[in-house]
Amino acid sequence: MTITPKDPQGAEGMRVAGRLASEVLDYLTPFVVPGVTTNELDKLAHDYMVNVQGTIPAPLNYQPPGYSPYPKSICTSINHQVCHGIPNEKALKKGDIVNIDITVIKDGWHGDTSRMFMVGDVSIAAKRLCNATYEAMWHGIAQVKPGARLGDIGWAIQKFAENMGFSIVREFCGHGIGRVFHEEPQVLHYGKPGTLEELKPGMTFTIEPMINAGKREIKEMGDGWTIVTKDRSLSAQWEHTILVTDTCYEVLTLSAGSPPVPAFIKG
Fold it and tell me: Quick check: pTM over 0.90?
């Protein structure tokens, strides 16, 4: 496993890219309402990235081995879609939940973040899932410090989510990030404390749990990208990009419109 720690200059590049990615979500927030199509959100995001921020939308034409090129600038995963939902002409409706996943490239550095949006009034069950997934992500983030291990992050997320009666998607995980969109290490959202890679200052990676209201099993749709829950239960995801500092961690994907940090996070 080759992990690329960031020097102070690299950390600053990641800081800028991370904030810009989060600011795309700030910009989109007022547009996520009943009646808007995910294609419209994609165009808004694309134009904001390219024309206002001077960033490159990393997903557009992204093609990992075995995949066709991703055709849009953002991912929009609605209700039982777990991740990698492709924007289209279908309008959001009241009661939907949607994950919007943004990755920008600025000066060669990638910033990657996603948020859940509740469209109009949503069910209590949907709200509970979205809120629990947000807290689960932060339980994982809270484990990050030099000397901790990747298994500590996964264990904290799994323990919290399963205690709430939810299940963790295992086929997708967080990832190292920097000048490359997806690099080592893989960051599992389940596991055992004290296992896997040791965290060291300068490491940058995403924590992005995908949590299902029903069973954890998933399937891929015919477009080759969109992942859904097999039992069609709701799924939620939140994502931040994290830097391991000399003493603790820094969340790189925070901006003025980011949701409040949970009360159990100190400092």
Answer: yes
